[in-house]
């Protein structure tokens, strides 16, 4: 989110009617922008969800799950690539009418956006005494407008459901040292592998028990899936997991990972073999070091944002709908900017931070999917402008790894203890009986 246009509760006390009109106008503009942003994305026509359901029909008919293939005019042949656990959870949806599955997945994604935005923004609302419902509504509309959210909904992806598991764990269970801390991250990892980066995050945060619980949960969930689908599990873990060509072409503009950037620079040749592993190792070392620092400073939002951005960068293929992790990063930037503005002598820094948050938000709202003229054509990136546009998410993620602030932990002021009252002394030098009784 860029600088949230929410105001302290008392800002409109002198002109309540005018303040209400301004807020209604702002909400109306944001709500009206959503159809304009979503209409181009509707050409996706729930493409990914339809692949999932076709693969379930194929599997239910007795065919091997990972033999399912579907031609694609842009990227050639596409396959079902999720782990067997996800396939087992998707299988019942294959029995529903397609329209019902689409409606259900879309509704769940929107609910997940509302819930996770509330989790992230409520601390900011309390800290800066913002109008609760107005700020939550603005923030939710802004998150719904993001390209990553639009692509998740219009492709029919499951990303936001995984985000709910991860944020519930890392914002509540892990900071509170709950006994079930790590379960959400473990389940998300068993469902889509990418969230495994958050197990590494738990290790660098020195939350050893949560890391063990997450690893054990992922392992147990995977073994349960293997018990129900042994053949599919063996095939996935021994072969399909390592075949990245099943997911799509690396040089496709929608692949916003380090390897995608290097592939676009080198196409039609392959990038140098050791270049991607070397860059990925540097990103992991630096990014997880900062994520660990944030966690140990109890800035859990910054920590999970940094870890998520690291995972997006080092994954061989990171579609734009995978990169939700700009959202918590923007919350940190907005909060830091508002804190600075409220601090004497630091208002200019606060204004710059809020402007920087807006500068991050705007390009990831329009996004890179709009620039489809490059597609996967075997043409190298040969101009600075093209390089910036085709690798926008990669470059912004790298920038945030370096500059995202780590906030000091909030500490509630403790009341000063009252000094013990002196006993009342009677004229004869003895303690008053009334005072002794009161003690």
Can you count the helices? 19
Element pattern in H and E = HHEEHHHHHHHHHHHHHHHHH
In order across it, which strands form the biggest sheet?
1-2
- What fraction of residues sit in β-strands? under 5%
Q: How helix-rich are the residues, as a percent range? A: 55-70%
**Strand segment tally:** 2
Structural class: mainly alpha
Query: Could you tell me the radius of gyration in angstroms?
Result: 26 Å
Counting copies of identical and different chains, the oligomeric state is single chain
Largest sheet: 2 strands, antiparallel
List keywords for this structure.
disordered C terminus; 19 helices; 2% strand; mainly alpha; two-stranded antiparallel sheet; globular; 439 residues; single chain
Give a description of the structure:
The protein is mainly alpha-helical and 439 residues long. Helix content is 62%, strand content 2%. It is built from 19 helices and two strands. Strand 1 (69-72) and strand 2 (76-79) form a beta hairpin. The radius of gyration is 26 Å and the shape is globular. The termini are far apart.
């Amino acid at each position: 989110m860029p600088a949230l246009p929410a105001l302290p509760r008392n800002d409109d006390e002198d002109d309540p009617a005018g303040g209400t009109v301004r807020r209604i106008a702002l909400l109306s503009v944001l709500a009206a922008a959503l159809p304009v942003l979503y209409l181009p994305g509707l050409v996706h026509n729930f493409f990914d969800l339809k692949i999932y359901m076709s693969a379930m029909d194929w599997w239910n008919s007795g065919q091997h799950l990972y033999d399912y293939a579907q031609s694609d005019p842009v990227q050639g042949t596409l396959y079902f690539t999720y782990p067997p656990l996800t396939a087992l959870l998707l299988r019942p949806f294959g029995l529903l009418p397609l329209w019902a599955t689409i409606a259900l997945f879309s509704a769940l994604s929107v609910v997940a956006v509302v819930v996770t935005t509330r989790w992230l923004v409520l601390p900011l609302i309390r800290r800066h005494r913002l109008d609760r419902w107005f700020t939550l509504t603005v923030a939710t509309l802004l998150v719904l407008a993001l390209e990553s959210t639009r692509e998740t909904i219009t492709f029919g992806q499951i990303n936001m459901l995984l985000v709910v598991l991860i944020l519930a764990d890392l914002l509540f269970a892990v900071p509170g040292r709950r006994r079930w801390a790590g379960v959400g991250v473990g389940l998300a990892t068993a469902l889509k592998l990418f969230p495994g980066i958050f197990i590494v995050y738990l290790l660098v945060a020195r939350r050893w028990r949560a890391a063990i619980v997450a690893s054990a949960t992922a392992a147990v969930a995977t073994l349960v899936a293997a018990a129900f689908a042994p053949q599919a599990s063996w095939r996935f873990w021994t072969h399909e997991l390592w075949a990245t060509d099943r997911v799509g072409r690396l040089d496709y503009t929608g692949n916003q990972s380090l390897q995608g950037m290097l592939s676009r620079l080198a196409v039609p040749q392959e990038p140098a073999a050791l270049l991607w592993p070397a860059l990925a190792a540097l990103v992991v070392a630096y990014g997880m070091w900062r994520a660990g620092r944030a966690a140990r400073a109890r800035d859990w939002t910054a920590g999970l944002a940094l870890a998520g951005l690291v995972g997006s960068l080092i994954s061989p293929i990171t579609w734009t709908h995978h990169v939700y992790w700009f959202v918590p990063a923007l919350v940190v930037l907005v909060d830091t900017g508002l804190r600075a503005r409220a601090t004497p002598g630091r208002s200019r820094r606060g204004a710059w931070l809020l402007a920087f948050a807006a500068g991050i938000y705007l390009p990831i709202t329009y996004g890179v999917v709009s620039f489809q003229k490059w597609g996967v054509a075997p043409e190298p990136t040969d101009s600075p402008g093209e390089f910036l546009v085709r690798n926008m998410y990669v470059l912004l993620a790298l920038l945030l790894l370096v500059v995202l602030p780590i906030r000091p932990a909030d500490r509630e002021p403790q009341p000063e203890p009252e000094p013990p009252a002196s006993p009342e002394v009677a004229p004869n030098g003895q303690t008053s009986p009334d005072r002794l009784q009161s003690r």
